[in-house]
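Before we proceed, please read the two lines closing this message. Let me know whether the structure tokens fit the sequence:

…
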Amino acid sequence: MITITATKLRNNLFNYLDQVTNGETILIQRNKKEVAKLVPPNISDWPDSTKIKLEILVEPDKLIKPIEDIWQDYV
């Protein structure tokens, strides 16, 4: 992690953005206090990570099998 002043960031913005692009994290200070942090983007396939993964706990034929006594009146 690199710590820089806001003035240094302003004067060398594109150089620091290149460093962040390469994976570096930059802590920005103003008056010796942390005011911001530049971090690389988390480039992941977020739609895949949010999908619900279902697991069938019952055999499909038992899940779909009709209950005989209820259906007898309709057949």
